Amino acid sequence: MTECQAAGRRSVGFLVLAMLAAISLIAVSLVIKGDLLSGFARVAVALIPVPFFVVMLVAGVRFNRRLDERARQIQLEALAIAFLGTGVFVMTWGQLERVDVLPGMNAGTVWAPMSFIYMAGYFFSLRRYS
Known about the structure:
Shape: flat
Number of strands: 0
Low-confidence stretches: none
Number of helices: 5
Order of helices and strands: HHHHH
Distance between the termini: 31 Å
Largest sheet: none
């Protein structure tokens, strides 16, 4: 198997894993919303998607370790921008939540802006190092 084929297989595997994580998260959300479970069973079902996301984290770290120095620098800068930018977003949202301008924050509220801030940081860094 060539290196290109191996990379393609890893990419497909990561996409399948991401889809399983998303499907499990949606399914668990529907089960929990339906009030079919109570007590410990509800907590256990809520934690079902966590292993998928842990494996995605490990896969992301492995991917990053295969990058060359330039690509790693771009990723590092993009992640730093996303981390700090998300912090600004969360602090701003929290302050506006205190004065009853915005509703309570949840994971979905944080993930979408964090993804966009990361993409902006990635393209900014890519342009800077090109």
